[in-house]
Design a protein that fits this description.
single chain, about 150 residues, alpha+beta
Length: about 150
């Protein structure tokens, strides 16, 4: 093998290694994916959640109750967590970074594991939904400490 081929092979292996460490969220497949905490099939696209680690591993959850319980268990060290996402209750139910969300807690939401917390991309969406589901506005950082 020539030196050029060795360098090419090393370059390709390095590129594959870099690409395999993706730290972006993955879409939640409702009806297919299972909650990492309770092991139930994720059934409601309005309440899902994800943890993405610094190495790109994705943990999926069906409710804020499950993701908060998992985080409080300290099974996954905080230093290994890159980003935490919650599903947008409104619209296309895309994943939202917990650093940029608005949360509504209402017993009328009836989420899969009774966490009954909905995430929103903006305060206007939350306030509009709060008319239908009366409840309190909560903060992600406060929920983590409870």
């Amino acid at each position: 093998m020539t030196l050029n081929r060795v360098y090419l092979l090393l370059f390709l292996l390095a590129a594959i290694n870099l690409l395999s460490c993706n730290t972006a969220p993955e879409p939640i497949k409702v009806g297919t994916d299972n909650c990492y905490f309770c092991k139930m099939t994720i059934s409601d696209d309005r309440f899902g959640a994800e943890i993405v680690t610094t190495k790109g591993k994705v943990y999926k959850f069906d409710d804020t109750h499950c993701i908060l319980s998992y985080l409080k268990s300290k099974y996954l060290p905080e230093a290994n967590i890159k980003t935490i996402y919650l599903t947008n209750f409104s619209g296309q139910h895309q994943l939202l970074n917990t650093q940029k969300i608005f949360l509504l807690k209402s017993e009328l939401l009836h989420s899969p594991m009774n966490g009954n917390i909905a995430a929103f991309e903006n305060a206007d969406s939350l306030k509009l939904m709060q008319q239908k589901f009366p409840g309190e506005i909560v903060n992600w950082e406060v929920l983590l400490k409870q």
